[in-house]
Specification:
By secondary structure, the protein is of the alpha/beta class. The chain has two domains: 3-135, Winged helix-like DNA-binding domain superfamily/Winged helix DNA-binding domain (Arc Repressor Mutant, subunit A); 145-318, Rossmann fold (3-Layer(aba) Sandwich), CATH 3.40.50.150. It contains 14 helices and ten strands. The strands form two sheets. A seven-stranded mixed β-sheet has the order 6-5-4-7-8-10-9, with helices on both faces. A three-stranded antiparallel β-sheet has the order 1-3-2.
């Protein structure tokens, strides 16, 4: 016999009415309708011994008015009102309305409010003492990758993104789980070999060997293109940005990260770079010449352990 047919019998109605025929059980249902509470909390709010509260909770649980789950050593209770037979819900609505003006239930709500504030106070006390060290503590407890993964989850799933000058593929590997396709381009066979190994389990990663000045990508094929710490290696930066613009769809986004101007000639030679960085106004002009509209360049504050020159972030859209 299914539940709906059994609930049409007189014993179902009698069972519902028996559950609602006790003031303590009505008070419990009112408390548990909006909050998940433990037995200790319920005893405090109702001002009743644990044995009494537990006995009434068992009756409500047996009749499927409430359910509980274990969290550590605590059993937390909540109502099942949304899953009740419609007739039982109607009975509850009548009972709840009739108890609205009870002085006892009003007292319960005041004690419940205090109890909920106590819960919040525990968190506030912790953060009041940990605020100055919270970033460090959070990193020690949970790491840092979750922040990046959270932000990447904001990306539309249907994007095609070009990672230009991809190197060994760390950025492509971060993006691949969140987008439709990654096209990773580099002109170094050694870099591509390392990237291929890193991206081997991503079926949506397409690795291509090619120069930044002549990208092996069709016109208007990409929703976004990244050029991260690669422009300083280009002999013809203007041509690189024209190619970047060419492969973007209308309103596609171009994102560049590279070095701000510096005078560390030895650093430039050691890293094999062609340029001593780029002034923001020069980057802005190059992007505009390439057909990239509304360029916005932001110098980025150096990270504490970074030993290289300071860098910038540039963002523009395909005109």
């Amino acid at each position: 016999m299914n539940r709906s047919s059994s609930n049409s019998q007189p014993d179902a109605l009698v069972g519902w009415m028996e559950c609602l025929a006790d003031p303590t059980r009505l008070r419990l249902l009112r408390l548990l309708e909006r909050h998940e509470l433990g037995v200790v909390e319920l005893c405090d709010v109702l001002q009743l011994p644990q044995s009494t509260v537990s006995r009434h909770l068992k009756v409500l649980a047996d009749q499927k008015w409430v359910r509980n789950r274990r969290e550590g050593t605590t059993h937390l209770y909540r109502t099942l009102l949304d899953e009740l037979d419609p007739a039982a819900r109607r009975l509850w609505i009548v009972a709840r309305d009739q108890t609205e003006s009870w002085a006892t239930t009003n007292q319960d709500q005041l004690r419940l409010a205090r109890r909920l504030r106590d819960r919040q106070q525990g968190s506030q006390t912790f953060f009041a003492g940990a605020a100055s060290q919270w970033d460090k503590l959070r990193g020690e407890l949970y790491g840092h990758a979750f922040t990046t993964n959270t932000l990447l989850a904001l990306l539309p799933r249907d994007l095609t993104i070009a990672d230009l000058g991809c190197g060994t593929g760390p950025v492509s590997a971060q993006l691949a789980p969140h987008v439709n396709q990654i096209i990773a381009v580099d002109n170094s066979a050694a870099m591509l070999k390392a990237a291929k190994k890193r991206l081997a389990h991503f079926k949506n990663a397409d690795l291509r060997k090619g120069d930044l000045e002549a990208l092996p990508i069709d016109d208007a094929a990409c929703d976004a293109a990244l050029l991260l710490l690669a422009l300083t290696y280009a002999a013809e930066p203007d041509q690189v940005l024209r190619e970047m613009s060419r492969i973007l769809k209308p309103a596609g986004r171009a994102i560049i990260v590279d070095l701000l101007p510096h005078d560390r000639e030895e650093f430039r030679r050691q890293t094999g770079q062609q340029h001593l960085g780029f002034a923001p106004e020069d980057v802005q002009q190059m992007m505009s010449r390439a057909g990239l509209a509304n360029p916005h360049i932001t110098p980025l504050p150096p990270e504490p352990n970074a030993k290289g020159p300071a860098i910038f972030l540039a963002v523009a859209e395909k005109d």
